[in-house]
Specification:
With 142 residues, the protein is mainly beta. The protein has one domain. It has one helix and ten strands; from the N terminus they run αββββββββββ. The strands form two sheets. The protein has a five-stranded mixed β-sheet with strand order 1-4-7-3-9, with no helix packed on it.
C-alpha cells in the first residue's frame, strides 16, 4: 500500500501549477530611474527567459512578467517606488526551484521616455528600446 501512496504523492507534486503571472504599474516622475534586479539562481535551463525594456508616453513604470516551468510558482515579484525612483525585483525561492532546469521568465517593462534604467538580470538577454536616459545592463553575476 505504501508504493501507491508514494506514486500518488509524486504525481500530485509533478502536477503542481507551472505558471505565475505578474502585472503592475506605479506612477513615477519623468527623468527618474528604475532599478531592475532579476535573480533566478543557477538553473540549468538553456533559455531562462528575457528582459525587454521599452519607453512609453506615460508617467508610470509598468511591468508584465510571465514565469513558466518548474519552480515558476516560487518566484517573488515586487514593484515599488516613490517620486522619480522605482525598483522591480524578481527572485526565485524554495529549495527545489532549480530542479528540471528551473523556471523560465519573460519580463516586459515600460518606462517614461526620459528615464534611466539600471538592470541586472540572470535570465538571459536584455533588450532596451527607445529609452533616453542613462542605461546600465548586466547579465548573470556581472
Amino acid at each position: 500500500m505504501r508504493t501507491p501512496l508514494t506514486t500518488l504523492a509524486l504525481a500530485a507534486l509533478l502536477a503542481a501549477p507551472v505558471r505565475a503571472d505578474f502585472a503592475e504599474a506605479i506612477p513615477v516622475a519623468p527623468g527618474g530611474s528604475l532599478e531592475i534586479d532579476i535573480d533566478l539562481g543557477d538553473g540549468l535551463r538553456p533559455d531562462p527567459g528575457e528582459l525587454l525594456v521599452r519607453s512609453h508616453d506615460r508617467d508610470e513604470v509598468r511591468v508584465e512578467a510571465e514565469a513558466s516551468g518548474w519552480g515558476a510558482w516560487s518566484i517573488r515579484f515586487d514593484l515599488s517606488g516613490e517620486g522619480g525612483r522605482a525598483r522591480f525585483l524578481a527572485a526565485v525561492g524554495g529549495s527545489f526551484s532549480w530542479m528540471f532546469g528551473g523556471p523560465q521568465l519573460r519580463v516586459r517593462v515600460w518606462v517614461p521616455r526620459e528615464f534611466s534604467v539600471d538592470a541586472r538580470c540572470s535570465t538571459g538577454p536584455i533588450r532596451l528600446e527607445d529609452v533616453r536616459g542613462e542605461v546600465r545592463a548586466r547579465t548573470r553575476d556581472a
